[in-house]
Design goal:
368 residues, alpha/beta, Rossmann fold, Glutathione S-transferase Yfyf (Class Pi), Chain A, domain 2, 2 domains, 6-stranded antiparallel sheet, 22% strand, DNA replication and repair protein RecF, DNA-binding_RecF_CS, ATP binding
Length: 368
């Protein structure tokens, strides 16, 4: 489901631009600060309604504008074209339209345009908080299990209500019962979705990782957020007094984590920064394979910011072979055009775009 046309207005230093990307590989090159990453950021906003560089909108929107807009025409597997666009204002409001219809849910954006981001901060997936790994895992489950979003919403609502009651201090346990029942039922269902997905993810990850780097001792495991030998209700019962003291629920899927270890040690503490980046690349490309195997109309679009960063030529080329094999649309940034272009097979369809002071110009186009 590649982008056929992309229009960007008022995103950071980018001048208003409309480009027609290649359905496969798109190389964006230019000096640091020229606006390369801003183009990837615009696509990220289109697919997820938020930036990957800032939690605030103020720095994303050009100071003389009150809002930024990203619009795209998207090619469907059927041969038809759909349109989608988003406008975000400095007041944090947004307007989303798909095929002329106003959409209120950002989840529908994510479902329509699945995105995977690989950038110099990707190593944080390993060394960062469990929340980042839960988000990674749930991205995959969301795109392959249509009931996941409803279940996730049930968990969030019941957890919020239980925590609100816990913060009141000493309360009758019976007041928690309805919300605990809902929380436990939805949590067990969410856990089942996550575990089923992980069974497919692990072999895909191991296969991709083996093509990037040899790390035979690396293991990927899943902690569901509570004792694996007890039901969630049993755990909540045993921790009730402590939950009351803390004012929040200690156990549940909101505590889940993916654990990557080497000989029992946290992989982030053992691997070099470059090795961490390769592991994260393998994790994300594995999700791209699972999405394709699902047979959905939407293939994953990969946004790769600063490809040469911390990767030598050998590993850079190996990563490009994997992206080629996915046969999906890829946007990659780098400083040097030749360094980017030389990493691909000669028969790979690609387009090249030069960015200078916020201006984007297509400079070369290889096989279509």
């Amino acid at each position: 489901m590649p982008l056929k046309k992309l229009s960007v207005t008022a995103v950071r230093n980018l001048h208003p631009v409309t480009i027609s990307p290649s359905p496969r590989i798109n190389l964006i090159y230019g000096d640091n600060g020229s606006g390369k990453t801003s183009l990837l950021e615009a696509i990220h906003i289109l697919g997820l309604a938020r930036s990957f560089r800032s939690t605030r909108l103020q720095p994303v929107i050009q100071h003389e504008h009150q809002a930024c807009t990203v619009f795209a025409e998207v090619a469907l597997a059927s041969g038809l074209t759909t349109s989608m666009g988003i406008t975000r204002s400095k007041q944090a409001d947004y307007q989303i339209r798909i095929d002329g219809q106003t959409i209120r849910s950002t989840a529908q954006l994510a479902d329509t345009l699945p995105l995977q981001l690989i950038n110099p901060d990707s190593f944080r997936l390993l060394e960062g908080a469990p929340k980042q790994r839960r988000q990674y895992l749930d991205w995959g489950v969301f795109h392959v299990e249509h009931q996941f979003l409803i279940t996730w919403q049930r968990v969030q609502k019941s957890l919020k209500q239980r925590n609100s009651l816990l913060r009141r201090g000493r309360i009758e346990r019976s007041l928690l019962t309805p919300w605990e029942l809902e929380f436990c039922e939805a949590s067990e269902r969410m856990d089942a979705f996550r575990q089923a997905y992980l069974l497919k993810l692990k072999p895909a990850f191991e296969s991709v990782l083996g093509q990037l780097i040899e790390l035979d001792d690396l293991t990927l495991s899943y902690f569901r957020g509570w004792d694996k030998d007890r039901s969630l209700q049993q755990v909540l019962d045993s921790q009730f007094e402590r939950d009351c003291q803390l004012g929040h629920t200690q156990a549940g899927p909101q505590r889940a984590d993916l654990r990557l270890r080497i000989k029992g040690m946290n992989a982030a503490e053992v691997l070099s920064r470059g090795q961490q980046k390769l592991v994260v690349c393998a994790l994300k490309i594995a999700q791209g394979h699972l999405l394709k195997e699902r047979g959905r109309q939407q293939d994953c679009i990969f946004l790769v910011d600063d490809l040469p960063s911390e990767l030598d030529e050998q590993h850079r080329n190996a990563l490009c072979r994997l992206l080629e094999a996915l046969n999906c649309q890829v946007f990659i940034t780098g400083v040097e055009a030749e360094q980017l272009a030389n990493s691909w097979q000669t028969d790979t369809s690609l387009s090249m775009f030069h960015v200078e002071h916020g201006h984007i110009v297509q400079t070369d186009r290889r096989l279509e």
